[in-house]
Amino acid sequence: MFDAMGQLFGNKFSSQWGTYDDGSWLAELGHLSERHIELGLARLRQQVRDAAKSGDEAWPPQPVALAGLCEPRPEDVGLPTVDAAWREACAHCHAPDGWRWSHEAVRMAGQTVGWREIHGTTAQSVRARLEKRFEREYGALVNRVMAGQPLQAQGLIENDATRNRAELAERASREQAQQQAEAAGLPHRMNASQGLAALKAATGRV
């Protein structure tokens, strides 16, 4: 990376950072793979070219700025953009099994956030929170694709402090229903309506 930065910026880089890293770059880039670094440097080269075309002078970025350039965007690995993925999830959340998804990562991110939540939420503040969570889940899956790892939902944990009372009450209700279902010997994987119907049937309630 230091060689590449030296080639791009010459003395502008070496006079500021020297020949070897003092730990500043490792602290910001150490968690990234070689493919991430290559992606960031490719974007940086394009910025230098664009600056040269417009007659501007390009300067070396700070470590944290280069780290930002290294983060993959979905389109870098052939996935829909975040906005397009969210629109697709919203458009087909009512019947996700009947839709041919543009990419498995879109379906998995939507499933982790919750199809019922996406479909049934109308409050703007809650919908914005769901969109933000979708973005995080989708970003985690994009990183796995970038790293060549198999896709699996990350299920990022949300702090209870980020949930309102209605969301907390709904989660508590789901957990209680799940515990009752397990006690009655019902299957573990059910949605809310399936679980309620099966629980009523098992206990003889109508």
UniProtKB/TrEMBL annotation:
Cross-referenced InterPro entries: P-like
Cited Pfam families: Phage_lambda_P (PF06992)
Name of the protein in its database record: Replication protein
Organism: Salinicola acroporae
Lineage: Bacteria, Pseudomonadati, Pseudomonadota, Gammaproteobacteria, Oceanospirillales
